[in-house]
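Our collaborator T.R. sent over the components below with a one-line note: 'Predict the complex.' Nothing else. No constraints on interfaces, no templates requested, no preferences about which chain binds where. So this is a plain run: every listed entity goes in together, and whatever single assembly comes back becomes the starting point for the next discussion.
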Amino acid sequence: MSAKVGYRKERLDRGIKARTDDIFAISTYREILYLILPRVFVIAGLLIFPLLGDFTGVYWQNVIVITCTIALLALSWDLLHSVGLVSLGQAVFFGVGAYITGFLAQQFGLPPLVTIPLATVFGALVCTMLLYPVLRLRGVYFGLITFALPLLFMRIIETTKVLGGTEGMSGLPALPSIAISLYIIITITLVCVFGFQRLFETDYGLVLKAIKDNDRSVIAAGFNISWFKAQAVFIAALPATFAGAFLTHHYQFVGIPAFATDYSILPLASAIVGGPGSFFGAMLGAFLLVPLSELLRDLGTLRIVIYSVILLIFVVGLPEGLYPYLRRKYFQFERVVSMELEEGGK
Amino acid sequence: MSKETILEVRNLSKNFGGVKAVSEVSFQLKRGEALGVMGPNGCGKSTLINLITGFIKPSSGQVFYQGKDITGIAPHKAVNLGIARSFQMAKPFYNIPVYKNLIIPLFSPRVRKLVGGKFGDRDEAAIHLLEDVGFERDSSIPYKAAGSLPHGYVKRLELARCLSLEPDLIILDELFSGMSMSEVASILPFLERLRDEGKTLIMVEHRLKELFRVVDKVVVLNFGKKIAEGLPEEVVQNEEVRKSYLGSEVDSSA
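Returned assembly:
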């Protein structure tokens, strides 16, 4: 047999990964730093950003507010995806949160401190009840229902002229200052990322994850999966309804655009580009895509073309997602090794 | 020692459209007994199991478990009453490490009520269960993602999942299917031990030789109907059973 020589990539875990994954032993400060530095970097960066107001300008501060909004929606999408529910209509959570806030603020004159938490929790409840009947649907079928819901709400508001109709509700109370707004939404985003990650490390989170892999076996382990999925939808709805409620007060306005398809597609794109299943990926994706779209704004109509091409490059070139890719690079060596190919081998 | 009846199936039927998948099947099972369910392909064995465990709602008939009518019960409720089942097409939770696959049943309402336990305790219980069903001690396999398991181990994991539920009744749906001779041979003593320990077992199986080493009695189905019931050695002499199997391996195996 004539042996041809081929090359392949070999991946080796760095020592730090083997030690922290399997035997949970960290020996030196260097290793501890190696593990926590990326997190510290992200947290510190986000917390310092609002202080740089003079340097960054209000425009970019607003961009970060939107970015965090999309990040929250992407986190919500990622949580649903982790339970096996593919949502194509994150806008429904966003819109419900936004309209409840607007309604509470306009009808009862409640301050943001009251309306935002109320709209977050109550909106999540409403969305859970809306989706409860379709939770047994999977994949595309569930996706289609969620895609239709925001459009349905839009048309209902448009035709019945309730809640301000096409005019929407304006002149709602504002948040005290842009710096405070930034701190609120950045903190909530960070809490959600780390909170969701922690949640999925618990036994409870394991059950949620297992539902995606094989729901029948989860039933055979004695769990009522409809009830668990409903809980997951509620938890996932919280950041999204919060985002809607928050942005309503940020803009001092709520209208039909709250159900816009942007709020469904951008979070989805963020989570896919960032890498679904890790939560951090969803956030990273949002922090990449939203500012990128702003940077391209000067290009006029071409913007969408270039934006789409960049999206394509990411999806085709990095199908696993940006975060898993970076994580792998951080924790593994990669080297090219030669190997003998058998006849007929590739 | 008088044994109580743990499971009673009365005239259980299921129609899919015009097809009678299971038709008027009745049998009783006493605590500590091991029952084999056999029959040719498509005779309704798996449907019968699904009817008992609530995964399919019966068209008519009743199921009694420990004296209680559980006909058409929600499947997760059946589990929490102590009926654990394996699936013919066993699928682990692919993206979850092998031992964590068992954390899920160990976290179930039933086990939490029976055993209690905090976060972390369950890891140890899971590893012990894996060793019980024949995962090598001190190997790294339990820590790997379950998607990488060879088929034989998937079946063992499926068995461990059933046992982790502290069941009163264990229903194994074609546990041996797809396993090699040596894999079956290595898991058989374990099943025999389960029987000797007084666990109540129902085994749906095609591989009769191995099945007969474990079970005390068998029920034979054909076209959804029960055509025979009794001791394994009696049943294989039954003319109708022989005909249903077209005189295949039955002769040599008994």
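Summary for T.R.: Chain B touches chain A through 31 residues (CB under 8 Å).
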